[in-house]
Amino acid sequence: MVDATVVSEFFGYVSLACWVFVLVPQIRLNYQRKSCEGVSLAFYTLWALGDLFNLAGAILDNLLLTAIVLPAYYILTDIVVLGQFYAYCPRCPIDEEHMERQPLIA
To answer: Which domains does the chain carry?
Structure first.
């Protein structure tokens, strides 16, 4: 019979692997398009703040190394995405044709 602890650890590592690569597709797409169109700067700014507070809490609580390394890695990927906004958005012309003329929710 398989030990529940082994299964739990396996699922934990699979989850960790998924979370490590969560922003890679967005970063790659932004790089290929040289644009951050369709991506919310406010969303990523708040996400980065959340990651920063997550890291601070993990350090202050002396959590396991994985609980400290993961938010630190997230902060690095947040910096990459926010850097893409800085690099690509000055080149993003406002496309009047695709601008919302009426709000979806009134």
So the answer is: 22-91 (1.20.1280)
